[in-house]
What we know:
With 123 residues, the protein is of the alpha/beta class.
Amino acid sequence: MQATPMFILYVTNPAASARFYADALSAPVIYEAPDFAMLALGQGARLGLWRTDEVVPRASFAPGGAELDVVVADVPALSAAQEKLAACGVTILQPVTTLDFGHAVTVADPDGHRLRLYVPAAA
Length: 123
């Protein structure tokens, strides 16, 4: 079976979340409806944004209950991404920091989900 990865976050406003992720990840919005939006993340991956009151079957979740991690090319690109996000008024949860797995910045999306951009540590 060949599979294309798709990640779905439950959000209160798919249009606002789509704008956030389109700006944060430079990812095109490829589908948008009142209850759902989808972005192309590259290499076939997709990010779906499903309005919480339309999720079928109903799901239990807490705001900010998910984290999406995205690899960035290098530390200068990571720092530039942090500056861009901060300039857009995004909540920076953790500025560029060195962690066991590499350098990372973590921000909150409009629903409190975490977006972590990181540069993996050299193996």
